[in-house]
Amino acid sequence: MIHPIPSGTRDVLPDEMRELRQITDALRRGFQAHGYGEVYTPALEYEEVLARAELSEAAPAYRLFDETGAPLTLRSDMTVPIARLVATRYPQATGPLRFCYLAHCYRRVRPQRGQPRELLQAGVELIGAPAPEGTAEVLSTLCRTLESTGLESYRVGLGDASVFSTLMNGLEVPEADRAGLLAALGRRDFVELQRLAGRTGLRESAVRMLIEVPQRRGGEEVLDHAPGPVADAVRGMRQVGALLAPEVAARVIFDLGLLRGIGYYTGAVFEVYDPALGAPLGGGGRYDDLLGRFGRPLPAVGFAIGVEALHIALAGEERGTGAMLA
Amino acid sequence: MSAAEHLRVAVPRGALLAGTLDMLDALGLSTAEMRSNERRLLFEDVGKLSGARGRSTSVSVITMRPSDVPTYVEAGAADIGVTGKDVLLEQVGIDGRAGGREVYELLDLRYGPCTMVLATAGAENARGENPAVEALRRLGVMRIATKYPRTALAHMERTGRQAEIVEVKGSVELAPLAGLAEAIVDLTATGGTLRENGLVVREEIARSTARLIANPVSHKLKAAPIDDLVERLRAG
Lengths: 326, 236
Prior knowledge:
The complex is a heterodimer.
Chain A: H1 14-33, E1 37-38, E2 44-46, H2 47-50, E3 63-65, E4 71-74, H3 79-89, E5 97-106, E6 118-127, H4 133-148, E7 155-160, H5 163-170, H6 175-186, H7 190-198, H8 204-212, E8 217-218, H9 231-243, H10 246-249, E9 252-255, E10 268-273, E11 282-286, E12 300-306, H11 307-319
Parallel strand pairs in A: 1-5, 7-9
Antiparallel strand pairs in A: 2-4, 3-4, 5-6, 6-12, 7-10, 8-9, 10-11, 11-12
Helix pairs in contact in A: 1-4, 1-11, 6-7, 7-8
Chain B: E1 6-12, H1 17-26, H2 32-36, E2 42-43, E3 48-50, E4 56-64, H3 69-75, E5 80-84, H4 85-91, E6 104-108, E7 114-121, H5 131-139, E8 142-146, H6 149-158, E9 163-167, H7 174-178, E10 183-188, H8 192-196, E11 199-208, E12 210-214, H9 216-221, H10 223-235
Parallel strand pairs in B: 1-4, 1-5, 8-9, 8-10
Antiparallel strand pairs in B: 2-4, 3-4, 5-12, 6-12, 7-10, 7-11
């Protein structure tokens, strides 16, 4: 008899579980070796607690009610619960605090797309350590931990969440045009971005910048000749880059167009790519305002890796037949 | 990374094939085999693209129907691809709503122009209403047959009208003639097929041309060859 399970969820049988366990063991060892202590928080939280953060695309999707009628949600990431944990359990500590986790999170899925409703995330949060040192520490932890799982060909995109809005401010893009430009960039529709930029009435050099800057990505040379309005963001990226050990820096792709679909990022953002997988297998960034929403204004930075995605990338690299290795 | 020296291109069969092969020719790639062998789907080595600073990228091609191109590109099974804006409107959406495929739209290639239209039968009633307008007034909804259900529904929502979308896979023009629907939403290049079946274009929904799309990870990991290619096509 067939008893269905919800789409986007799955059973794990021993062969897969053994491989997953090897990966999570390596990740946990890696995080702990860098001084990050493992924490666990409840899968269910009060809705009003998680609603303090702008999770945007990753907003909690599942609500239920407890026996008193209070609305609960299934957590959709671990960063917000850990911000809550720091505010309540470490009310005096000034940090830096280092936490890591391996925990399931729950997201909405798009129909018929094979997306996970329940996903295992592994990550760290470094709280009380400002940019650029904190950012560089977390990036190094990310790279060294990925390497300890055996992943070889990965790269890390490093950008800044403020680049495009700062650029629009600096170029004095009319207020009425900004939402459309941001939406086109969010969809990565550069044809529409170009059309809308051409209609802003700005001078030609400014229009070119709106189109060209978010497509700049590559080695450190993309940070040269940065236009005035984004000079601060670019300086920040350069400072982070300068703090990295050479073997970590070699993994970095500087990317002025990197956008994450989560609203709480304030500065540096990153994403992990592997040629064996067509989508990023993880990401993170600075969220210097989030702890303040829980009454503990502390700078913070973290990342999360999708363990199932990492598993697919590792298997693809091993076969040498991943999506882009063929 | 060795993977960076190779690009796999998804090429659409059908109306956009000729323009796409001409584009590949103009880039100095060899398309003779693609032109002569309609059954083969994978062309391993069709030549090299040379870029700035002596960079050279080998290119392979896979061919498929246009609506499959975003599927292959999103998964990274092809680094870049060519498909119609009509396909992207249907699969990526214009408002970023759930269901959109995650691909980068890099360039308007300008060939393969066509228009997404709403059409109905030519007949009009005593009030001068076409069948779709009459159905909307008297029955409260317009039945629309289409191969582009998301595009059709989005158009009707945007214009504040209720519609019942009937998805069909084959010749859409048949639906209003046989009484399955009052209107169709379909793509037309010259309007010939519509006219032959006595249908009249009532609304223009969107204009479409061929677009160059890229996988998000390829766009980062193979930035240099992709940018070279876009630059040459833009100049060219």
